[in-house]
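re: ur question from yesterday

yeah so i grabbed the chain u mentioned. its 269 aa long if i counted rite. heres the sequnce exactly as i have it in my notes:
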Amino acid sequence: MKKIPFTKMHGCGNDYIYVNAMQHPIADPQVCATRWSDRHKGIGSDGLVLIDRSPVPEADFSMRIFNADGSEAMMCGNASRCIAKYLYDRNLTNKTTIRLLTLSGIKTLQLHLADNKVERVTVDMGEPMFDVPEQFVSCRDSGKGSFVSMGNPHYVIFTDNIDQVEETGHILEHHPAFPQRCNIEFARVEPNGHIRTRVWERGSGITMACGTGACATAVAAVTTGRGSRQNTIVMDGGSLDIEWAGNGNHVYMTGPAQFVFDGEAETSK
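ran it thru and got these structure tokens back, copy pasting raw so excuse formatting
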């Protein structure tokens, strides 16, 4: 057995296990993600994130992210913010603008400091895409949803009954319209204009928050006439500020990142 140092972090309750792969490479991340993420028999998390050097000069660092079921994800907004805090607060960089290589491209992270520590991070999430699969009436009282890709696929349903995520999230993730599965959001516009959202993440189930899901929800609110170009998305674990700006039609996500604890985990390789 080999012991691997890790740091548990969360962004709005979306918690992952972070490993500095520059110092501690992991040969079997899919297996580790499944075992370590178990909330009863392991560390407990929504998945595993590996922070590494970038193999290309256009980026400063790279990330790989594995869901709790071991599947590899393309991108995670909450994890990106946590990586920015990890790198800066642990003195692995002194940059306040970091270019992070992900499987959905290079993301620019702008760090907002307080007392020389990262308090909040703004992530340039890029342009939303609308390669819409065949629409379907997804479940009782929901009507049709909006498909938005933020580097990974999301299906956003506006409904008064956002708690139906617990009954139908898994069904919709595996719906035939999504051959590679899909992240599902149930959203409701509140009287104050904020958008209350619950998330079913592909490969992880219900999570406290989802950065790309918040972005997809904000975009869907604009395209369906339910929101403005600036929205606050309120998720189970906290709020994210989303701006769909005119600068190249990019979406910008701003929110917190926090350390939870450090530890060591065992791997067989």
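noticed a couple things. DSSP finds four helices and 17 strands in the chain. also Residues 26 and 148 are 32 Å apart (CA to CA).
anyway ttyl
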